Amino acid sequence: MRASLLQVAVNEDESVEARRLRVAGMVRDQAGADLVVLPELWTTGAFAYEAFESEAEPLMGPTYEVMAKAASDAGVWLHAGSIPERAPDGPLYNTSLVFSPSGALAAAYRKIHRFGFDQGEAVLMGAGSELVTVRLPQTTLGVATCYDLRFPELFRGLVDAGAETFVVPAGWPERRRSHWTLLAQARAVENQAFVLACGTAGTHAGVPQAGHSIVVDPWGEVLAQAGPGEEVLSVGFDPATVAGTRERFPALKDRVLGLEPPKRH
Q1: Domains of the chain listed by start with CATH number
Q2: 116-173: per-residue pLDDT in tens?
Q3: What's 70-99 look like in SS3?
Q4: Could you give the CA distance from residue 183 to residue 199 in angstroms, rounded to a whole number?
Q5: What's the chain's Rg over C-alpha atoms?
Q6: Max intra-chain CA distance, the chain
Q7: Strand, coil or helix: 199
Q8: Which of 73, 78, 128, 187 stands 20 to 30 A from 143 (CA)?
């Protein structure tokens, strides 16, 4: 299986419309890949909070239309990153879109863990509540977004739902890049799954981005990692490695669930 992670540069001197069309062209250039992945909030920038309201769009809005066509033209499964979605009932969500090679919407995921510690995304957007998996011919994807990477229980839930490959679009800041790599490897090792984590390059509202998109195998080995700038990271991997790893080293079978909280003494 071949995946292409498009580490898009998000800069303020490019309009959302221009970037949308440019990225669609990048997707089309990946014809022949099995899966293409875009970053989080690449239309606006993950830290461009003031743009969330003005650039929010319906689920089936401009980005949906352009990315559905790009997926169909390239004949690829496309995780189109995430958009600021304006739901019919009013709230904004950080919503990921996954398209099949026909251009049909295969899944949408509203980010569960919002970043900001009572400011920014945490107050401007609603929280999702549903885990999302997508069955591809070669593997089952578990979908998460950026800050979700810090919450292992979400990934355990995705494993229980059948996930073998985690896809994590992000707008991760450069100042915490070491966490990005560490957490991607941890989620791979503890769940014996592939991790495809696609970040942005450039600067969002004055916040330099980490870039360094990464692909990690079920043993925690880094198969490929991008640099800091805009880049296409293309890597081949064998999804059957997941079942083989879980069979040879069946740590997931030793999980102990439902533990009682500690007693006070």
Answers
A1: 2-254 (3.60.110.10)
A2: 999 999 999 999 999 999 999 999 999 999 999 999 999 999 999 999 999 999 999 9
A3: HHHHHCCEEEEEEEEEECCCCCEEEEEEEE
A4: 13
A5: 18
A6: 65
A7: coil
A8: 73
